[in-house]
Design brief:
There is one protein chain. It is built from 4 helices and 10 strands. It is α+β, with helices and mostly antiparallel strands. It has a 5-stranded mixed sheet, covered by helices on one side. Strands 2-1-5 form a 3-stranded antiparallel sheet, covered by helices on one side. It is elongated. About 11% of the residues have low confidence.
């Protein structure tokens, strides 16, 4: 009876050992395959560390037009798909492709013959272009890109990191010359006060904050 019990125990230990070896091998294969498929992220280009102006107005941008001499004409307009805005007294005016300063000057010239004080002030209310945040941020979604903005600022606009976030693994996906590039950023350097160059986002970048492994 004791011999039978000992034999059964030995077989059980052998089966456990075999199962453990198989599981270890599968885990190693999975890890290797995952790492191989991801591949190394490309080096962050130098131009990503350079601030660019917010650029020209585009279709979908919402602008505010204020008239110093006729405040009752003040209006907010969304730039139409054809690039135009429709304004009192002067009708359709081309806005897309212009800077705010250029549009302001053009409108002031247009209203010279219509108003005693033709001064016009144009400001951007909301930008159509933006960046998209996902993963471990408090408010995933679109952040309007109405000014030069760093990746860290975009994350803060989305409410900041969640408690589960891994700031060392922030992925930026960018459509560049018809191809998608993936950059991996370590935000811990900026958060800890270490000297690091800011990464400036571009319109339609996708920022994904990974979850911490612990």
């Amino acid at each position: 009876m004791n011999n039978k019990s000992g034999g059964a125990g030995k077989r059980l230990r052998q089966q456990f050992a075999t199962g453990w070896i198989c599981m270890s091998a599968l885990f190693a294969a999975f890890t290797f395959t995952s790492c191989r498929d991801m591949g190394p992220a490309p080096v962050v280009p130098a131009e990503a560390y350079v601030s660019k102006p917010s650029g020209n107005l585009a279709a979908g941008d919402e602008i505010s037009v204020s008239f110093s001499g006729a405040p009752e004409m003040n209006t907010k307009q969304k730039i139409q798909p054809n690039g135009m805005v429709s304004l009192p007294m002067v009708g359709d005016v081309s806005a897309a492709g212009r800077t705010i300063h250029s549009l302001q000057s053009a409108l002031t010239a247009r209203y010279q013959t219509h108003l005693q004080d033709p001064s016009v002030v144009v400001s951007l209310e909301s930008a159509a272009a933006g960046v998209y945040l996902s993963g471990q941020v408090l408010r995933p979604g679109k952040v309007p890109l109405d000014r030069p903005m760093t990746a860290l600022e975009a994350i803060m606009e989305a409410g900041g990191f969640t408690p589960l976030a891994n700031p060392k693994q922030v992925i930026v996906v960018r459509n560049q010359n018809g191809k998608q590039q993936r950059y991996v950023l370590n935000m811990n350097e900026a958060l800890s006060g270490a000297g690091s160059s800011p990464f400036y986002v571009r319109p339609y970048d996708v920022i994904y904050v990974k979850q911490s492994a612990w």
